[in-house]
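Below is how a single chain appears once it has passed through the pipeline. First comes the sequence as given, then the structure the pipeline wrote out for it. We keep one example in the README because the format questions we get most often are answered faster by looking than by reading.
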Amino acid sequence: MSAVKLVAVFVENKPGQTARITKTLADAGVNIRWVTIASSGPFGVMKFLVDKCDPALEALKEKGPAVHFLDVLAVEVKDKPGALHAVAETLGSHGVNVDNVSGFVANKRAVLVLETHDIPKARAVLEKQGLRVLTQEEMLNL
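Resulting structure:
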């Protein structure tokens, strides 16, 4: 399966949390390649693509926050208007719900990071449409 593994950290939404978590990763020698942070009231979730998943998980667990791995799909799309719409429409028409999505452009490559509860079906649908699902290694090398 071509899922990409993220480290997800659940924390209280208060000043200094981002600094505490990122220091823990830096002290463990873990390089953050991509990050998203979202909050909802008193709590938030930080999601990281890192170069060393297991050391990141171990270091964070040692410091106390709730942390786990999260599988997502990284899909390369054309860097043009409507690319996200095309993916959302394709998945929706096949009964696949998109729980969360973010995107970026690096080295002239547009990538959507998709969270869904049905990764195998989403991957199959997207690949059938001719879209390229990236591996963990490919994401780290962008």
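The chain has two domains: 4-70, 71-140.

See the next section for the split statistics.
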